[in-house]
Specification:
This protein has about 250 residues and is an alpha/beta fold. About 40% of the residues lie in helices and about 10% in strands. It has nine helices and six strands; from the N terminus they run E-H-H-E-H-E-H-H-H-E-H-H-E-E-H. Helix 4 crosses helix 5 and helix 6 crosses helix 7. The longest helix is centred in the middle third of the chain and has 22 residues.
């Protein structure tokens, strides 16, 4: 039996303000810190024993991982970071309030930008200060690989090769591994693991700070998947995520 646990970072300061975040590096809110610690305590009580962990280059995911591992007394385990686990790049939308953007462009257009399979938001200009090509943390990444906007399809195109080259082999070696990342990078992986359709992934929401477990056999065939926690609370949290991009 193999177990892969995915966790979307705890609430960030821009999640709290209902802003498009993308590759902008923002910190966890107080609620986000509490969510991460709660997740760590929950996984400790469930007896998880991770041997390695993965996360993105963005602070909110890194700190979520650290807080989870601190609560589990597992800060000693190896961790690997990759830009390929970063959130979807929201282009010109980064920093804008989601509800205000929906009021301006319409709920349908914002839903397409947020959740469509292959329609990216308006891209950043080359000289935009928000460009990842100007961010020192990505200095070792080939500039042609750094996006100025992304659709979910683009996230899948950069995420799944990393799953195949790094995370899956790690899961084959170890019984349990942890991935702390972002709503869309995790949705890309979930779509791949569950062989979901474009329509199904459009309706699928991952709440912040809730452990999501995938169980596999030794040949990495998926057996089942489930969130850990109170089902009714998780349902409400998923609905909140779905409603973030609506004008009302």
């Amino acid at each position: 039996m193999k177990k892969l646990v995915l966790i979307r970072h705890g609430q960030s300061t821009w999640n709290k303000e209902n802003r498009f975040t993308g590759w902008t590096d923002v910190n966890l809110s107080e609620q986000g810190i509490d969510e991460a610690r709660k997740a760590g305590k929950l996984m400790k009580s469930e007896g998880f024993n991770f041997k390695i962990a993965y996360t993105s280059y963005l602070t909110r995911a890194i700190k979520t991982l650290w807080l989870v591992l601190e609560e589990m007394d597992m800060m000693y385990i190896p961790e690997k970071k990759s830009w390929r686990l970063n959130e979807k790049h929201y282009g010109e939308l980064q920093g804008l309030n989601k509800s205000e953007t929906a009021a301006k462009y319409g709920d349908e257009q914002v839903l397409l930008w947020r959740r469509s399979f292959d329609i990216p938001p308006i891209e950043l200009q080359e000289n935009d200060p928000r460009s990842p090509r100007l961010d020192p943390r990505f200095a070792d990444v080939d500039p042609k690989d750094l996006p100025m906007t992304e659709s979910l399809k683009d996230v899948i195109d950069r995420m799944i090769p990393y799953w195949i080259s790094d995370i899956q082999p790690s899961l084959e070696e170890h019984a349990e591994i942890l991935v702390a990342a972002h709503g869309n990078s995790l949705r890309a992986l979930v779509m791949h693991l569950k062989n979901m359709s474009r329509e199904e992934i459009l309706e699928f929401n991952i709440p912040t700070g809730v452990p999501y477990v995938f169980e596999f056999d030794d040949k990495i065939n998926l057996l089942k998947d489930y969130f850990i926690g109170d089902p009714e609370e998780i349902k409400k949290l998923m609905e909140q995520v779905a409603n973030q991009g609506k004008s009302k």
